């Protein structure tokens, strides 16, 4: 893995997060995006090359909605950049890592993503290729 791509933060109100991080704290706001497949609307901010992605659920079956119901707002996952996501998934599986996604899925900003199960990585971990 090359570096941290972003830190995902679950929120109930995306507009409130934008107000705080853009207008009060002064972070560089990169815009909003909806990722239907993941059931989220995302607001992105840049923090010296590391992105903060605030995630608001858009459906009742969104993993973010379930997270918010059980744990409340807060850090949901850390994402790491990788060059070849399929090769990385296979390598991790050979090492006994439990994957949530054994095949890459479409992520935001034309990326491919896959999640490691938190039982194998302490915190929910995302692999990101592209973007």
TrEMBL record:
One term of GO molecular function: methylmalonyl-CoA epimerase activity
BP term (GO), one: L-methylmalonyl-CoA metabolic process
TM helices/strands, residue ranges: none
VOC domain mapped to chain residues: 3-130
Top-level taxon of the source organism: Bacteria
Keywords, ordered alphabetically: Metal-binding
Family the entry assigns: Belongs to the methylmalonyl-CoA epimerase family.
Alphabetized NCBIfam families for the sequence: metmalonyl_epim
Stated name of the protein: Methylmalonyl-CoA epimerase
Lineage per the UniProt record: Bacteria, Pseudomonadati, Campylobacterota, Desulfurellia, Desulfurellales
């Amino acid at each position: 893995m090359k570096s941290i791509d972003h830190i995902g933060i679950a929120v109930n109100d995306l507009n409130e997060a934008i107000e705080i991080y853009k207008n009060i704290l002064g972070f560089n706001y990169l815009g909003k995006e909806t990722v239907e497949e993941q059931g989220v609307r995302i607001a992105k901010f840049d923090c010296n090359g590391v992105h903060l992605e605030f995630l608001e659920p858009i459906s009742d079956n969104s993993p973010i909605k379930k997270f918010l119901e059980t744990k409340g707002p807060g850090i949901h996952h850390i994402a790491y950049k990788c060059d070849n996501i399929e090769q990385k998934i296979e390598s991790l599986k050979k090492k006994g890592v439990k994957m949530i996604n054994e095949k890459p899925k479409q992520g935001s900003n034309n990326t491919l993503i896959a999640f490691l199960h938190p039982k194998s990585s302490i915190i929910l971990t995302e692999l990101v290729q592209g973007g």
